Amino acid sequence: MVMNRENIAFRPLLPFGREAYGISITDVNDKDINSLKNALANHGFVVFRRQLVSDADFVTFLDRLGQLTFTVGETPVLHQPSLNVVSNIGRVHPPRSVFHTDTSYVSQPPAFTALRALTVPSAGGETLFSDQYRAYDTLPRSLKERFADAKVLHVVSGLTLGEDQEKQSWHSLFRRHPISGRLALFLSTPERCQAISGVMPEAAHRIIRLLYKHSIRHYRLYRHQWQQDDIVIWDNRCTMHRADHAKVVGDRLLHRGLVLGEAL
Fold it and tell me: H or E segment at 83?
């Protein structure tokens, strides 16, 4: 156990994000949780290295951040059904991944997503993150004014859902984070962003594609090189992310947990 510390410690990553150090997720206290939530709200994601913990420990940690949720249609972890499997094992073709925000098509999307690395490939398989605060901050003032109150229709894609499951929801294009108070450009892949309130469909699709491209310029991205026993947690309200499956060598197995966000 980490003793005689006043708070969880972080070091900056470039071009954004934070790495926690000197602590196991099994040792976090209430003050640490508040500090972590603030780090996520202000810096987008936090990396924990060398976390020799179980899935049960992982779930306990996430439960301290808020109510766990699950994306219907994903494959649950057998012994921890609140988690789901993220893997390339046994696949003929690599998984498809584009920049997105997790489960944004529901009325109450997850605030946080966390991945725990169980098996790391010998090459490739990185996860990339975009800074959606910076994406908003660097927009032209005229565009910020024009779409200040706009909403985007997020719809499900790539999953098979039942008739009683949520499949779409409207969310603010410019979303104010409840902790940091900053505005972020709240998007997902254009496949899931199907309309903008008050804008004709053809124009809306063009605007969404342009905003999406603006968000993921390569020099603004953080590329996480996975190590065994890493845990990475990110704030879906101010980031997008994608896995890079282009040059993966070997098996890649992670377990994912989601923490419910506020109703929008």
Answer: strand 80-87
Collapsed DSSP state (helix, strand, coil) of residue 122: coil
Task: Look at the block and give the residue holding tokens 């605030």.
Answer: 111
Structure tokens at 114: 């966390």
pLDDT tens digits for 151-208? Answer: 999 999 877 777 788 899 999 999 999 999 999 999 999 999 999 999 999 999 999 9
**Domain spans in the chain, listed from the N-terminal domain onward:** 1-158+166-264
**CA–CA gap between residue 264 and residue 141 (Å, rounded):** 25
Residues 88, 91: Cα–Cα separation, whole Å: 6
Tokens of 44: 């987008």
Q: How far is CA 9 from each of CA 5, 12, 38, 78, 151, rounded to the nearest angstrom?
A: 9, 10, 12, 34, 37
- Ramachandran area for residue 61 (φ above 0: left; ψ -120 to 50: alpha; else beta): alpha
Q: Which residues of 72-82 are buried (b: 16+ CB within 10 A; e: fewer)?
A: eeeeebeeeeb
Query: pLDDT tens-digit profile of 7-28?
Result: 789 999 999 999 999 999 999 9
Asked if residue 5 has pLDDT above 60, the reply is no
Please name the amino acid found at residue 80: Q
Fold of 1-158+166-264: Double-stranded beta-helix (3.60.130)
The per-residue b/e assignment along 141-177, b for 16 or more CB within 10 angstroms, e otherwise, is eeeeeebeebbbbbebeeeeeeeeeeeebebbbbbeb
Mean pLDDT (the chain) is 93
The end-to-end CA distance of the chain, in Å, is 38
